[in-house]
Amino acid sequence: MIIKSKAGNGNKIHIYIDNEYVLTVYDDYWYHNGFKDGETITEEELASLKEEAGFRLAYEKGLDYLARRSYSRKELYQKLKLKYGESASERAIEKLLYFSYLNDEEYARIYSKHLYETKKYDIKRISMELKLKGIDREIIENVTKTLDNEPITRIIEMLSTKFSNGFKDEKTKNRFIAKLQRMGYKFSDIKAAFSEYEIELESNYCDY
Predict the structure, then answer these.
(1) What pLDDT does residue 208 have?
(2) Engineering a disulfide at 184: which of 6, 66, 122, 142 sits with its beta carbon 3.0 to 4.6 angstroms away?
(3) Over 60: is that where the pLDDT of 115 sits?
C-alpha cells in the first residue's frame, strides 16, 4: 500500500492509501510520524497511524469543547465517543485530566451554582442532575453542602415574584406546586412556604 498526503484546511493533512482517502491528521503529527509521500505502509502501520491520529483528533476536539464551556468527564467522553470511538476518546479524556483541563469537582461547583441560582432548583434536584452527569457521590455531597439550603425562603421568594397577587385559579396553583416538586422541593417545605404566604393547600399532595 502506498501512502500519500494532501494539505487540507488550516493545519489538517488528508491521508490517502493507494489514491483513496483514509483519514485526516494534524500537520505536526504527520511531519513527525516518519512517513513520506510515496512510501509503502503495512496494515499494522496503518492501524497504528489511525489509532494515534484518532486520539489526537479526539484530544484537540476535547480542548475545543472545553474552551466553549465546562463538561463533566462522563459528558465529554460520551460526546467524543460518538465521533472518535471508545479507545481514542478514553485516551483523550485521560490526557485532559492529566493536564487539569477536565475536573469533575470544578465542573460540579459551576453547574450546581447555575442550577441553584438560575434554575432555582433545590438540593435534591441538583444532586440528581449532577449524578446524571457522572459526578461521584462524594463530590456531589461536598458541593451541595456549600449551597445555602433554605427551601422555604426560596419558595416564598418565587411566590412573591410570580404570584404577588395570588393565583387566579386552582389549576394555576396546582401547576406551580407540581413545578416546585419537579425542581426538587419537598411538599412539606412547599406547604410551609404557602402557609407563611397565607395560601391554603389541599392535603392530597405527597413528596415525589
Answers:
(1) 52
(2) 122
(3) yes
